[in-house]
Amino acid sequence: MNVGDDICTCFKPLVDVNDEIQTMIKNGDNSQAENLISKVEQLNTEGQSCAANMVKKYGADTQLDTDKISAHMKEKCPKILKIVGEALFVK
User: Which of 7, 15, 87, 88 is least surrounded, with the fewest CB atoms within 10 Å of its CB?
Assistant: First the structure.
């Protein structure tokens, strides 16, 4: 595993629920979709916590090559990169 894989793993549940909500909305199941909105907030918090744990795993003083990580994520989990990449790779 590397940092890109770990980021993908951290945020996969959030992206999966987001996809589920989008499908429900397209199918007209707005009330069901609204029921999952609170889960999105919880999963986002868990994803952020998971990502923060990577600092412990890889070291806070480690210079991460954000371009390399971003390229890896673009290949492995492009949806996740699109959703959380901007917040993670702020320079």
Answer: 87
